[in-house]
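Write out this protein's structure.
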Amino acid sequence: MPLFCFHNLDNETDGAELRAATRSAHLEWAAGLGDRLRMAGPLLSEDGAMIGSLFLVEAEDLASAQALATEDPYARAGVFARVDIRETKWLIGEGKRT
């Protein structure tokens, strides 16, 4: 199944507040993706503040990946100013290290 990268940047007006208010719902949604979710985590500013999200997700095709991204509680709450979804191939590395 194809792998898609979701590169999401928060809106600078109230993204941080919206992110904090919907974080629990977002984490629950992400956990519900099961094996389709290959990697996820926040994008950080130079000072360590969360400014976006990065996901690697398996989906049937680009349209399915885009539909999935709209279900994210962060997306529904208006956290993101920019969402970029691209197909990618995992060539090197084993993923999260424990």
